[in-house]
Amino acid sequence: MNRITTDEAYFAWFKSSLEKNKAFFYEHPSVLLSTTYLALSFSGLIYLYVLGRGVGVDIIKYLELVDFIMAFLATPAILYSSVVALITSLVTALLINRHNKKQVKSKVQTEGWRSWLETYRMCYRVNPLYLILCTILILPSIYSIVVADLDAEQILLGKGKTYQVDLVNPVSIHEQPKFRFDHLKLVTETERFSFFYSEELKQVLLITRDNMASVQLASQGYDN
């Protein structure tokens, strides 16, 4: 590979790399799909970790294999953050493309320290195609961290839907058996467990799903 010294050469490298990899992904689409699914699942795990840490419980250690695989599907916020990340990437790429066209038309050669800010000089040693792919894969995780932190804050502030839960078998709270809990905020659900934040106890309650007789919204009917 020739040494890259200009943005034109850098984007020529990008085009050639894109053409070379097009054939591979066309013949092996499962690789792209599997990589995307893995990235989204990883984002889901990050979301659950940050959310659990925010409300004071380690959600990750209660997850089963199906929860790891379906983490981003079970939590809509992860899908939303992934979509926002992809849109951000596309908009950024569009703005960069417009900027590059203006630079080419102006034919002004940036020199000195400004070349590090106004060109892609700092990335000349990195394949631009791989750089774009890594950005697209990493952004959902970053958005998941932000969304999870905001969701945890909302739960602790008592915002959102409030639930009442009736149990089949009692659980002991301060050595007192309880069949019912009021003023609960749903944190998340897994294959076996439901995580509720109790506004009265100021802690997260871990309830097995088969031990819940009914789940009732504070202002609505029963949701079994």
Helix content: 40-55%
| Mean of all residue-level pLDDT scores | 78
Order of helices and strands: HHHHHHHEEEEEE
**Uncertain spans, ≥5 residues at pLDDT below 50?**
none
Number of helices: 7
Structural class: alpha+beta
The share of residues in extended strands comes to: 15-25%
How many strands appear in the DSSP assignment? Answer: 6
Globally, the shape reads: elongated
Sheet with the most strands, sense and barrel status: 6 strands, antiparallel
Strand line-up across the major sheet:
4-3-2-1-5-6
Radius of gyration, in angstroms, nearest whole number: 24 Å
Q: Please report the distance between the alpha carbons of the first and last residues.
A: 63 Å
3D architecture notes:
The protein is α+β, with helices and mostly antiparallel strands and 224 residues long. The protein contains seven helices and six strands. The chain has helices at 7-27, 29-55, 65-69, 71-74, 76-106, 114-118, 128-156, and strands spanning 163-173, 176-189, 193-198, 203-208, 212-217, 222-223. The chain has a six-stranded antiparallel β-sheet. A hairpin with a 3-residue loop joins strand 2 and strand 3 (193-198). Helix 2 (29-55) runs parallel beside helix 7. It is elongated.
